[in-house]
Amino acid sequence: MSVSMRLSRGGSKKRPYYRIVVANSRAARDGKYLEQIGTYNPLLAKDDENRVKLIEDRARYWLGVGAQPSDRVARFLDAKGIQERAATNNPNKGEPGKKAKERAEDRAAKAAEAEEAAAAAAAAPEPEAEPEAVDAAPDAAEEPAVAVNESTPDSDAGDTAEGVEGQSSQDPAEG
């Protein structure tokens, strides 16, 4: 029978509390265990002495018998000085995933295009303003004829300048 040292979860929802147990490796995570050798409360501060409690002599005994600690329990044992744990190296841990890399490349390409467009706009000569014509007659011919509204703000909108004051420009109603 292979024996492992691992965490067994207790506590309520969103309030975890773990027992550090020695159990048959085939047993359920929270199931039957051979011996409880400590506790772990992740809700406490990292520097709190009650966060991890271990019975060191029992941990040493089970390691001597051949119990295999899980990664988290191996960290606890290393922190207490019971068993040295080799540091792991995962060079890919800090790298972003495929989609994040694609998004970063797209952002970089858009930024490069924007810089090129800005550089092209700065390098291009500004269009020169056309000189104004000295002759008044050509300017008058180019401008469209604008209808002048001679009505004042107090007059009716339908009235025209030709109408006589006090008389409506509309035809009288028959009837």
Automatic annotation (TrEMBL):
* Keyword field: Ribonucleoprotein, Ribosomal protein
| Record-annotated membrane-spanning stretches | none
Q: Which PANTHER family match?
A: 30S RIBOSOMAL PROTEIN S16, SMALL RIBOSOMAL SUBUNIT PROTEIN BS16M
Ranges of compositional bias, category Polar residues = 166-175
The UniProt entry's sequence similarity note says: Belongs to the bacterial ribosomal protein bS16 family.
Recorded hits in Pfam families, A to Z, give: Ribosomal_S16 (PF00886)
Q: What is this protein called?
A: Small ribosomal subunit protein bS16
Name the gene that codes for it: rpsP
Q: Which InterPro entries match?
A: Ribosomal_bS16, Ribosomal_bS16_dom_sf
Q: Which Gene3D superfamilies match?
A: 3.30.1320.10
Q: Which organism is it from?
A: Novosphingobium tardum
Basic and acidic residues bias locations: 95-113
